[in-house]
Amino acid sequence: MLDKTTSRRFDVNTPPATMKKSLLAISLLLSVALQAADEKKAVTYEGQITGVVCVSCKAHITGSLTQKLPGVISVDVKAGDNADQQKLIIVANNDAVTKESATKALGTFAKNYQILSLARKP
After folding, report:
1. 58-90, pLDDT tens digit by residue?
2. Which of 2, 34, 47, 111 could cross-link with 118 by S-S, CB 3.0 to 4.6 Å?
3. Distances (CA, A) of 111 to 13, 33, 107
4. Does domain 42-120 have CATH number 3.60.20.10?
5. Where along the chain do its domains lie?
């Protein structure tokens, strides 16, 4: 049995200071790289949609497009230039979103809402 007065304190769970600094540097580099990769991949699409008359309509569109289109980060429907058309804004991690794919993603809701246009924002 070791005598507590003569034993050295050594915690195997605490890495040396240099190891801590290295791990911190690596984690910072990874977080910056991941953030930069996310920023490069985000693509914004804008278009026109009809048939959106209430908050439930907006929720149907947002839910359908977010769940069924791959890589969609966010969907927003805003008031358009006239009362019959609203602005559709989709932010996605890919450049494969088209008017046709968005209409297909609406599924049964496509009979109520018509996507008139959808284009990648420069």
Report:
1. 999 999 999 999 999 999 999 988 889 999 999
2. 47
3. 61, 43, 8
4. no
5. 42-120
